[in-house]
Amino acid sequence: MKLEAVTIGTELVLGLTVDSNGADVGRVLAAAGVEIVRRTTVPDRADAIRAAVGEALDRTGFVLTTGGLGPTSDDATKTVVAGLFGRRLVLDEILLGALESRFKRLGRTPMPAANRSQAEVPEGATVLPNPRGTAPGLWLEDSRGRVAVLLPGVPREMRGLLVDEVLPRLIQRRTAGVRVVRSRTVRTTGVPESALVERIGAVEETLAPLTLAYLPSVAGVDLRVTAWDLPPAEADTRLAQAAGRLTQVAGEHGYGGDDADLAAVVLERLRRGHQRLGVAESCTGGLLGARLTAIPGSSDTLVGCVVAYADAVKIGLLNVPLATLQVYGAVSEETVRAMAAGAQSLFTVDCSIAVTGIAGPSGGTPDKPVGTVWLAARVGDETRAVRRVFPGDRDEVRQRAAQAALDLLRRQLGPA
Q1: What confidence tens digit (pLDDT) does each residue in 20-35 have?
Q2: 334 & 393 share domain
């Protein structure tokens, strides 16, 4: 089954909002064996919507839209698509009652008059109930076999309708012998993309007919392997085998698959070993602590974090010797080792992580350029410290430093 997707919103065209809906639609439908042959983004203008949806219907006969179903004057999707199908808008009394009940339940009465328009639907359309918002989805089909599926633009509402209402209908329409597009990811960190390519090179040829993509980011390099147009069972089997081979070749640089979070991986390792963690960070300014506390259940393992930005805090809370700071500076191996030991003592924990560096854009020197970061991981009485020089702007340096600190502790803890 093939269709086209049209995401609607001026904010998407201007780049003010990332088009997460388009990405979600692509992932969900591909996994269900539905191929999106084209994706178009247009502003909230009736002429642009009419052209995009009309051309999609002419080419493919099946289009899914997101956005433009709200109650304001710039929400033109429903009216435009109704016109393309030669349908007039009619008031759906059941839908109107549901809308009024929703506003009453939320204590917002009377319902604004503008929302009444959301109870108007094209004649003959199937209403897709939206329990998460006021804009229902719509499914239109005509005698020529053309189909238009209209979904709201709010991501949470769109995803809910896509899974609950649209996918079951698409599955019913599919013919026998379904083929799918599916992917698996192996996540790596602490290794440059070029070095990873050298490691993986010999294996890549054996993955056919699957394809392999290298996806670098501030967190590392993801290896995404994709099965195209294969039966579901065969796709799953091939992907599992490929992911296993890639994990083996990635070695110590691999830390998980698909949506794995390195902070969660580290916390789980500590939890299994009944070890507790303390953190001391300077240039990352709490980012490392935020990564860890974002993981549910982190309080089982993480005891506390210190943002020791000023030297006075390094001295007063972490017992970094004044002489160390004076002789070696705040960004040095000696200081980061002292910070790690101080965090371990302060929180009375088994393990600690420390970070200090120059995130920029100023503050660098010939010996310590912007991007210089010292990291330390301490497990028991053993401390490992490493120096890194990270590329990028201030935010990227901080993100890379937090990821590298977590990775250093993961490796210090030894094999899983």
Answers
A1: 999 999 988 887 778 8
A2: yes
